[in-house]
């Protein structure tokens, strides 16, 4: 119930371009409702999915390890040039500049040649990125929230990822997409 009200309010605020109010609602949701982010867990590195996970859950939770610093992962996700190069290395069908990312707070982004679009809601350098994220063919005004948390792990990075608020029935498809188009592509890019 709380989630439905929150996302209706976020949608209303984004439609009115009241980014500050939408940001406060999102922060409230992320930090006041932390139990929602711990309901389901997928261990991507071992390609296994928790038995508690169901295709009807509203959350995608993935944890990934990279052999590069949090700064490198953070910068790649926020750089048009680096993210485009990452995408191109794994998926030759995308253009040389498949990503256009305004890496400032409130900045917009378009990745995978415009298939995914959104706005940056929160930035904590080398520690956290929170995005309003959507696939362009979703119903107008429907945004989900993608949260990337970067933790140093020895000389690498432990990335904790949560994706919430996407349309019903898309969890499995989106989970596979994050794995292939983000985590596998980033792993290959950093080799």
List keywords for this structure.
191 residues, alpha+beta, Alpha-D-Glucose-1,6-Bisphosphate, Chain A, domain 4, nine-stranded mixed sheet, 5 helices
Tell me about this structure.
This protein is of the alpha+beta class and 191 residues long. The chain has a single domain (42-189), classed as Alpha-D-Glucose-1,6-Bisphosphate, Chain A, domain 4. It is built from 5 helices and 9 strands, in the order H-H-E-E-E-H-H-E-E-E-E-E-E-H. The chain has helices at 2-15, 19-32, 70-78, 80-90, 171-189; strands spanning 42-43, 48-49, 59-66, 100-101, 108-111, 116-124, 128-135, 144-153, 156-164. Strands 2-1-3-9-8-7-6-5-4 form a 9-stranded mixed beta sheet, with helices on both faces. Helix 4 (80-90) packs across helix 5. It is globular, with a radius of gyration of 16 Å.
Topology at a glance:
Blueprint: H1 2-15, H2 19-32, E1 42-43, E2 48-49, E3 59-66, H3 70-78, H4 80-90, E4 100-101, E5 108-111, E6 116-124, E7 128-135, E8 144-153, E9 156-164, H5 171-189
Parallel strand pairs: 1-3
Antiparallel strand pairs: 1-2, 3-9, 4-5, 5-6, 6-7, 7-8, 8-9
Helix pairs in contact: 1-2, 3-4, 4-5
């Amino acid at each position: 119930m709380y989630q439905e009200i929150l996302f209706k309010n976020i949608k209303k605020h984004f439609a009115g371009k009241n980014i500050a109010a939408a940001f406060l609602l999102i922060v409230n949701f992320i930090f006041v409702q932390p139990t929602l982010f711990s309901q389901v867990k997928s261990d991507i590195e071992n390609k296994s999915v928790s038995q508690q996970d169901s295709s009807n859950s509203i959350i995608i939770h993935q944890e990934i390890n990279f052999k590069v610093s949090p700064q490198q992962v953070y910068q790649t996700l926020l750089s048009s040039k680096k993210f485009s190069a990452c995408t191109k290395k794994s998926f030759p069908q995308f253009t040389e500049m498949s990503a256009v990312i305004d890496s400032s707070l409130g900045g917009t982004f378009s990745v995978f040649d415009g298939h995914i679009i959104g706005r940056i809601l929160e930035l904590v350098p080398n520690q956290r990125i929170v995005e309003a994220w959507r696939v362009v063919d979703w119903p107008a005004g429907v945004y989900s929230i993608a949260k990337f948390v970067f933790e140093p792990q020895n000389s690498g990075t432990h990335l904790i990822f949560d994706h919430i608020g996407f349309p019903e029935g898309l969890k499995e498809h989106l989970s596979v997409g994050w794995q292939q188009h983000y985590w596998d592509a980033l792993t290959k890019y950093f080799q």
